[in-house]
Amino acid sequence: MATEVKVPVLPESVSDATIATWHKKAGDAVKRDENLLDLETDKVVLEVPSPVDGVLKEIKFAEGATVTSQQLLAIIEEGAAAPAPVADKKEAAPAAGAQEVQPKAEAAKAEKAAPASTKPAPVASTDGLPPGARFTAVKEGIDPAAVEGTGRKGAVTKEDLINYASGKTPGVSGGARPEERVPMTRIRTRIAERLMQSKNSIAMLTSFNEVNLGKVMAMRKELGESFEKANGIKLGFMSFFAKAAANALQRYPVVNASVDGNDIIYHGYADISIAVSTEKGLVTPVLRNVERQSFADIEKGIAEYAKKARDGKLTLEDLQGGTFTITNGGTFGSLMSTPIVNPPQSAILGMHTIKERAIVENGAVIAAPMMYIALSYDHRIIDGKDAVLFLVDIKNQLENPSRMLLGM
């Protein structure tokens, strides 16, 4: 029985998708729930699993094609088995008592003269690679260990493998000044559009402050082990910042508001977008109702999103909404930056790297773990006074974490 594979129902905000990668070809056997292909939308990469066991009989669209919701992608012959490879008659075993058709010397000569197999050499372990990079490594027969990664913390990306395979990587071939023209992915194109939208439609301004994280670090050192035993998750820095931001958003609701035409929409909840870097670009999954979450809830939510982002499993629902954003350039060593507001939100908090600096405390000069924090905001609705007081509120909470836990 023939089973149709269709494009999943796409949200109203997503009109179409591009076929990024087929993981199977016509004639291949497939298992139920096995990933057949990746669809790239403006926001996420969607996997399309096989609905049944069988054989992929027909593929309707090639890689790079644009498809719409519920469009037919492929046909699977349910319950069928893939055709067995046809045995070479010359390689068949001779019948009992029969003489060899070819002397051993001639067989060895023929084997030597046979053309080399075009099948890629076995690839070393691809564990830890994102799905797109893993597929490219296997397809091209590349050992990821031989490729210099340009991703986060030196991770090997799909683009690194493509450049390596095409000889564009410096030191492999292509000379000292290689160039390659690569079309933007759908996600990168959408990121570019939104950044330009933010630049052209928002009266954006950035205010800065600095935070002494000595007490936060002391609390993590003192309670980190007990926290992990009790909750099964490590106590990180992001939960402190997310909770401090959620508390401050309740006290300064205009920072949590958004512009809709001539109206201002005030949100009575803190749905905080956490910026996560992936090989395809920056994505911002949303932690819902952070004002009601515990530190453990926040840490678990962030860890889950980080894993889904690495594995390419983020859904459109994970990315939709959000009333405020936190981005952490400090993970890459950034000392100071001016983050860009993510419309229709009106503000974004930028975290940066922690550096020990000399400060004056109680009349004495001491070394303290300091971080610059930045708030970029839409000056159309947020006055400088509100922005500065919001940053000071976050600073006071982080420098007195015990008061923050009490909601003070």
Descriptive report:
The protein is of the alpha+beta class. The protein folds into two domains: 2-78, OB fold (Dihydrolipoamide Acetyltransferase, E2P) (Beta Barrel); 190-405, Chloramphenicol acetyltransferase-like domain (Chloramphenicol Acetyltransferase, 2-Layer Sandwich). The chain contains ten helices and 19 strands. It has helices at residues 104-113, 131-140, 158-165, 186-201, 214-231, 238-251, 295-310, 316-319, 384-399, 401-405; strands spanning 2-6, 16-22, 29-30, 35-40, 45-49, 54-59, 66-68, 72-78, 204-212, 258-260, 263-265, 272-274, 276-278, 281-283, 286-287, 324-328, 347-351, 355-361, 364-378. The strands form five sheets. Strands 9, 12, 15, 16, 17, 18 and 19 form a seven-stranded mixed beta sheet that branches. A hairpin with a 2-residue loop joins strand 13 (276-278) and strand 14 (281-283). Helix 6 (238-251) packs across helix 7 and helix 6 (238-251) crosses helix 9. The N and C termini lie far apart (65 Å). The model is unreliable at 89-122 and 170-175 (pLDDT under 50).
Short description:
This protein is α+β, with helices and mostly antiparallel strands. It is 29% helix and 24% strand. Strand 10 (258-260) and strand 11 form a beta hairpin.
Query: What number of domains?
Result: 2
Flag low-confidence runs: 89-122, 170-175
Radius of gyration from the CA trace?
28 Å
Structural class by sheet pairing and helices = alpha+beta
Query: Biggest sheet, in brief?
Result: 7 strands, mixed
Approximate shape: globular
What is the CATH class designation of the largest domain? Alpha Beta
Terminal Cα separation, in Å?
A: 65 Å
**CATH homologous superfamily annotation of the largest domain:** Chloramphenicol acetyltransferase-like domain
Order of helices and strands: EEEEEEEEHHHHEHHEEEEEEHHEEEEHH
Amount of helix: 25-40%
The total of beta strands comes to 19
Average residue-wise pLDDT: 82
**What fraction of the residues are assigned to beta strands by DSSP?**
15-25%
Annotated CATH architecture of the largest domain: 2-Layer Sandwich
Total number of helical segments? 10
What fold name stands as the CATH topology of the largest domain? Chloramphenicol Acetyltransferase
